[in-house]
Amino acid sequence: MKPREVAASYDRIAGRWHGDSFDRDYGMAQHRRALAFLDDAGAALDVGCGSSGRIIDLLLERGFEVEGLDLSGEMLALARQRHPDVTFHHADICEWVFPRRYDFISAWDSLWHIPLARHEDVLPKILHGLNPDGVCIFTTGGTDTPDEVRDAAMGPPMYHSSPGLPRTLQWVAESGCVCRHLEYDQHPELHVYLVVQKAP
User: Fold this and answer.
1) 61-74: per-residue pLDDT in tens?
2) Torsion-angle region of residue 80: left (phi > 0), alpha (psi -120 to 50) or beta?
C-alpha cells in the first residue's frame, strides 16, 4: 500500500482514537521513561500524532512547545479540535522536510506504516532532526529481518513493515545516537519501542 492509501484507511476510522473508549494510558509510561533522559523541556514533535492527543497533552504538561504531524486529514481535523493552539502538519513523513530541530520526537506506532524501502531514509531523517542531547521514542516491529504485512484487522486495509532490529540499531548508531532503552513491551507480540538520544 502507498502512504496515501494508508491515510485513506485511517480517515475511515479516525474517531476510534478520539472517543472515550480509547485507552489514553497506552504508551504513556514508555513516554515518561523517554522524557526522563532530558533535563529541560524544549521543542517537541509527535510524528503520526493521530487524533487522541494524549502524547501532546503529556508534552504540554511538561512545558514543551509541541507540533504534530499526520498523513490522515480526518485524524488532524479531530486533533485540531482538541488542541486548537498546537501547530499541526498534514504531510507524509517520507517526504516532509523538517523546518527545525527538536529536543524530543515521538513516533509511536506510526513509522511501521511507511513503505519498507523507505525506512532507511526516514529513520535517519528523524534522528537528524534532533538537537544535541535530544531524545526520540519510536516503535517498530521486533523482527530480526525485514518484513511487511497487509491485513484488514482494523477494518479498512492496512500495511505494516519492519526493517528488522539489526538494521534499525545500525541506523541509530550511524545517525549519531545511542540506544538508551529497547523493550518488547507487549511480549509475546513483536511490538518494540526504543528510546534513543543524540550525542551532545
Assistant:
1) 999 999 999 999 99
2) alpha
- Looking up cell 541509530 gives 172
User: For 31-46, what is each residue's pLDDT tens digit?
Assistant: 999 999 999 999 999 9
Reduce the DSSP state of residue 94 to 3 states and report it: coil
The pTM score is 0.96
Task: Round to whole Å and give the CA distance between 93 and 24.
Answer: 24
Contact 126, 107 (CB under 8 A): yes
User: Would you say the C-alpha torsion 109, 162, 5, 66 has a positive or negative sign?
Assistant: positive
The Cα–Cα gap between 132 and 48 comes to 23
Q: Decide if 106 contacts 67 (C-beta within 8 A).
A: no
3-class secondary structure, 86: coil
- Residue 164 contacts residue 112 (beta carbons within 8 Å): no
* Helices 54-61/28-35 angle, 10° precision: 30
Of residues 52, 32, 41, 34, the one with CA closest to residue 137: 34
Q: Walk me through the domains of the chain, giving residue ranges and CATH numbers.
A: 3-198 (3.40.50.150)
| 58: number of Cβ within 10 Å | 20
CB 129 within 8 A of CB 135: no
